[in-house]
Amino acid sequence: MSAQIDIGRDSGGQSLFIDLEELLATRLLVQGNSGSGKSHLLRRLLEECAGLVQQVVIDPEGDFVTLADHFGHVVIDAAAYSPREIEALAGRVRQHRASVVLALEELEVEQQIRCAALFLTALFDAPREHWYPALVVVDEAQMFAPAAAGEMNDDTRRLTLSAMTNLMCRGRKRGLAGIVATQRLAKLAKNVAAEASNFLMGRTFLDIDMQRAADLLGMDRRQAERIRDLQRGQFLGLGPAISRRPVAVNVGAVQTGAKTAGQGLIPLPEAAGEEMESLLTDRLAEAASETAPRAPAPPPRPVVDLERALSAAPALREAPPMAPPSSPPVMEQEVSLPPAPDASPEADAPPGDLMDVVRELAASEGATFRPATALFRDFAVRCRQQGIASAHVDLAAFRRLFAFALAGVDRLDEALRQTVERMAGNVDDDVLAPYLALVIAAATGNSMPDEEELARLYGSASPSRVRRLLDHLERSGLIVVREEFGGGRSILLPEMVDLPAR
Questions:
Q1: Most exposed among 305, 347, 394, 479, judged by the fewest C-beta atoms under 10 Å?
Q2: Strands 74-77 and 243-251
Q3: Phi and psi (nearest 5°) for 384?
């Protein structure tokens, strides 16, 4: 199918068209300084070919999310998904030919780069039967394909350069037509820029960028001065999909706009100098002494069928958590615990006053940071002082009783307590307390303990040890940790079914 996209007017006032079929085969490079109208040009291009071809937009600033309002694009908020979910989403995008905007503005720069690289790589690696034609628009491409390493992690740089190079060099055979836009050609990796056959060059002022733009357009040094004099929304175009000779274009109007603040002038406030000073300094010391409130953690996303969302719905529904292949089905915190086996632990339960001693130890300051042997000696001494028989409790049994007391198992009702005790049967003593805290939080519907609380229960002040703890529990099949690009973390517990929510 052939289609002509009207992107604006040439210098003679005639409509200038881009051949969409040729564009899919030859790719496009857009350059322009901030304020030159580069994003406006991309928006015009996307609007004009909406409905004709699938569109995938990598949007680091949230400029293109408004396409969803008029053209039914699915907006993927990258901060809400884990890396594995981002890759799964990309696969479904290709499968269902959904036009999407990958919104990255809520992420830190390096997270944006890694997320986009994973998404693009998954698009590229889609099965052959899903190689449908699609425009892949990457705004601010100098971030994702930098000419120099800068402060970016080496692994991240290799990952993103590989993804962008695959898109521009090898994407055509997979139906992917890259459209990359950059503020500066000098900052864009040459092997990415060199693969484009179509060019739209906007205003730029630095000599090195003007010279590179002129070289791509086939202009001499004197003609390159024209690039400095271009107005906002004016571009010089060249390429098989645009024109065989350099042509000037004034980009046409668009139906949608960015959600950024308006750039026009607005009246200043009318407050007098003293009044404005009062507004700035009133209770300043009190405000400075206040601790900034922590943003609440996002609630766990329910398990839904995302395939139907990508194929039909105008807005993206939430993706299911990705469980390890060998793990059983995973449910969120409101799911509950498996039923207790027929046997009951009550016959072997320790006397109440012995448990009082254990609870006193667990409640003492810094108890979790003391060695288990020291705690056990203290326990034995207290039992002798109170005349409580404790000879039947060895060190291993004490460690488990201490973990139960730390987690607060005794505060649960009888049925739930027995179930929790049964679940703890095969868990190592040294990780039992934090695991029980996770189980109890999920069973009772409370929020999961944070890293600080897990560290206290684990007897460590090291965040890295807590991460290793969670990794160990996950490898053991006891939990599933779901990391999000936005920094959030959900801890899920397998096989927690059959009990009502509490």
A1: 347
A2: unpaired
A3: -65, -40
Cα distances (angstroms) measured from residue 382 to each of 288, 330, 372, 379, 404: 48, 43, 15, 5, 19
**pLDDT < 50: residue spans in the chain:** 1, 261, 294-306, 313-349, 497-502
For residues 118 and 87, is the Cβ–Cβ distance under 8 A? yes
SS3 (DSSP) at 58: strand
* Helix (H) or strand (E) run with residue 20 in it: helix 20-26
C-alpha pair distances (Å), 142 with each of 66, 102, 249, 304, 463: 23, 17, 24, 36, 34
Max distance between CA atoms of the chain, in angstroms, equals 103
Please give the pLDDT value at position 49: 92
Q: What is residue 344's three-state secondary structure?
A: coil
Residues β-bridged to residue 331: 493
**pTM above 0.70?**
no
Note the pLDDT tens digit of each residue in 114-171: 999 999 999 999 999 999 999 999 998 988 988 877 777 888 888 999 999 999 998 9
Label the pairing between strands 28-31 and 74-77: unpaired
* Residues 440, 409 contacting (CB under 8 angstroms): yes
Per-residue pLDDT, 420: 79
| Residue boundaries of the structural domains of the chain | 4-257, 323-494
Strand order in 489-494's β-sheet? 330-331, 489-494, 480-483
- Report the topology of domain 4-257: Rossmann fold (3.40.50)
Per DSSP, the residues of 131-197 read ---EEEEESSHHHHSBSS-TTS-HHHHHHHHHHHHIIIIISGGGTEEEEEEES-GGGB-HHHHTT--
| Amino acid, single-letter form, for residue 467 | R
In one-letter notation, the amino acid at residue 224 is A
With beta carbons less than 8 A apart as the criterion, state whether 493 and 438 touch.
yes
**For residue 118, what pLDDT is reported?**
94
Q: Are 309 and 69 in contact (CB under 8 A)?
A: no
Joined together, the tokens standing for residue 460 give 């460590």
pLDDT digit string, tens, across residues 459-471? 877 777 877 888 8
369: how many CB neighbours lie within 10 A of its CB?
A: 12
Provide the pLDDT for residue 412: 80
